[in-house]
Amino acid sequence: MNQTIATMLGHRSIRQFTPQPISAEQRDMIVQAGLAASSSSLLQVVSVIRVTDNKKRSLLAEYAGGQAYVASAAEFLVFCVDYQRHMAINSNVQADFTELTLIGAVDAGIMAQNCLLAAESLGLGGVYIGGLRNNAQQVDELLNLPQGTAVLFGMCLGYPDQDPDVKPRLPPHVIVHENQYQALNMADIDVYDESMQHYYAHRSSNQKQATWSQQTTSKLSGESRPHMLPYLNSKGLTKR
Questions:
Q1: What is the pLDDT of residue 206?
Q2: What is the number of structural domains in the chain?
């Protein structure tokens, strides 16, 4: 195993950070690593907003559901799907196809993961903040996003002030199928649920008793940010 793979396998979400700032050199390397990520047809339909204003940080923490580390992390980045550049280059650009929003979301995820992996390789930690979509319109207005541009998620970065265990994942044979989709073996889920219960029972904070199956089915049994479609439509995206 090389150091890159070891860094990947050691990923933990970090939500507590020391006051130590990230240097400009480190930040530049993280951004360059993100820019080096794959981009569909080299469209490069992602914009990243670095939020340094303390008042805006506090508001974003509130909009994200009271996640205080949004305000306290050394850096906070907001990843956006962005077709404004392309529309400015040529007014014939039609950015309202659903496929183009999907491309933007995929590209943003790839770019962000490059940024996070680069940060972790430098001894930093971070966590994704999908909670920005709880109040996407307010975030949009706070960051003055133009038409054709929409908020996707945020990312906290900084020096870790905690050392959580690596959270168990579903085993590869459940995720990776060969030649065709394979039927789920519920015995595999039972084993995984047991490993997650053990993880939650023994971690130092936020201990839980629910299994992975219970948590995920509960989350997927109700509405999931139904305001996102009209929000994206209002930005000229995902209309057809």
A1: 67
A2: 1
